[in-house]
Write a structure and sequence with these properties.
The complex is a heterodimer.
Chain A (H helix, E strand, L loop, with lengths): L10 H10 L9 H13 L2 H14 L2 H39 L6
Chain B lengths: L1 H33 L7 H6 L4 H34 L9 H30 L3 H36 L1
Classes of the chains: A mainly alpha, B mainly alpha.
């Protein structure tokens, strides 16, 4: 039977090879840079998450009811203020039309 | 990605519709409730916080003033008719037409003086502070527009002189 002479299977040779393979020197802040690149690669996913969260909030019945109530209240208040101004203006025009002679207009 | 965006856009559109709808409904309701077109003096009552007694007095003054005002308007209208009937006014300003214009101007001045006199009488029927405010506002509303017009005309004339 023929003996296997492949040096890679020789435990002594393997140990020598491991010892000869020096540890590579990494550039400064290698680990930080790797994490930074990983974070940058994941960044585009953030807006979708934000939009998702907002959509979920909008769909919550409590939020929807509160937002509708606030908008209704704001609309009614602003409309009433504007309406008062318009009514005041119309009443003023009516009065002026009655006291200022046509000949002077 | 698309679904949340559609929800957000839908919510914004719905919110805008709710706000706009309630705004216009409220505005119309307020105008309909607060304006009384039948009463010309309604503005005085609300704007100058007048009592019923003060309003009664002012109403008497107002009703006394209206026939005088109408009479003056009729005089001015008659003079305008006379001016239009003068022959040749379409091309040249005759002495007769100039005289009519002067008469109209005098009547207008008289009419304006009468109107101011009425404003003074009304202001005196109000509490002093409100009366002053009323008089100032009426002067500004009735004479202010004329002054603005005259001012703009003089400015315009000035520019023309400047270009010549």
């Amino acid at each position: 039977m023929k003996e296997n002479h492949n040096p890679a299977f020789d435990p002594q040779v393997s140990a020598l090879l491991r010892a000869a393979r020096g540890a590579p020197t990494l550039p400064p802040r290698f680990e930080q840079n790797v994490w930074r690149r990983i974070e940058a690669a994941e960044a585009p996913a953030a807006p979708a998450a934000w939009l998702d969260a907002l959509a979920r909030l909008i769909l919550r019945p409590r939020f929807a009811v509160a937002a509708t109530a606030v908008l209704l209240l704001a609309g009614i208040s602003a409309g009433a203020l504007e309406g008062r101004q318009l009514a005041r203006h119309d009443a003023q025009i009516n009065y002026l039309a009655s006291v200022v002679p046509h000949a002077l207009r | 990605m698309k679904r949340p965006l559609i929800i957000l856009i839908g919510a914004v559109v719905l919110g805008a519709a709710i706000f706009t709808g309630s705004f216009y409904a409220s505005q119309r309701a307020t105008v309909a409730c607060c304006v009384k077109p039948a009463d010309d003096l309604d503005w005085l009552r609300t704007e100058f916080y007048l009592s019923d007694a003060e309003m009664t007095h002012i109403r008497e003054l107002h009703e006394g003033y209206l026939p005088q005002c109408a009479e003056m308007c009729a005089k001015i209208a008659a003079k305008k008719g006379e001016l239009e009937s003068i022959p040749g006014t379409g091309t040249n300003l005759t002495a007769e037409a100039q005289a009519k214009l002067n008469e109209i101007a005098a009547l207008r001045a008289q009419c304006q003086a009468q109107m101011l006199q009425h404003f003074i009488a009304v202001s005196q029927a109000m509490p002093p502070e409100q009366g002053q405010r009323y008089l100032a506002e009426m002067k500004q509303l009735t004479l202010g527009t004329n002054e603005l017009m005259e001012q703009s005309m003089s400015d315009h004339a000035g520019h023309e002189h400047g270009t010549n």
